[in-house]
Amino acid sequence: MSEGSIESDKEVGVALALGAVAVVGAVVMFAYPGQLGKAWGFAAAFVFATFAVGAVQLFD
After folding, report:
1. 24-50 burial by CB neighbour count: b if 16+ within 10 A, else e?
2. Domain boundaries, the chain
3. Residue 4 burial (10 A CB sphere; 0-12, 13-18, 19+)
4. Which long-range contacts (CB under 8 A, 24 or more apart) does 37-40 make?
5. Which of 57, 58, 53, 43 lies closest to 18, judged by CA?
6. 39 pLDDT exceeds 70?
7. Which of 25, 26, 14 is nearest to 51 (CA)?
8. Is the distance from CB of 14 to CB of 59 less than 8 angstroms?
9. Residues in Cβ contact with 48 at an 8 Å cutoff, skipping those fewer than 6 apart
10. pLDDT more than 70, % of the chain
11. pLDDT category of residue 11 using cuts at 50, 70 and 90
12. What pLDDT does 47 receive?
């Protein structure tokens, strides 16, 4: 019986999911007609992109 470790790609999946939400935030930032909606879109894009990078570092 061989001993080995099972590697997980959890960080990739979490990063892709958070990245998808960040892309939606960026689309809202460009497509929303009002300034407040653009601000919320920017905030969502920035926060979820930061979380995506952090998830890769956390699960590595």
Report:
1. ebbebbeeeeeeeeeeebbebbeebbe
2. 24-59
3. exposed
4. none
5. 53
6. yes
7. 14
8. yes
9. 18, 19, 21, 22, 25
10. 90
11. confident
12. 97
CA distance 39 to 11: 28
**Contact call for residues 22 and 54 (beta carbons, < 8 A):** no
| One-character DSSP codes across 4-56 | ------HHHHHHHHHHHHHHHHHHHHHH-SSHHHHHHHHHHHHHHHHHHHHHH
The token pair that represents 2 in the structure block: 């061989």
Joined tokens for residue 38: 């653009």
CA–CA separation, 33 and 39 (whole Å):
11
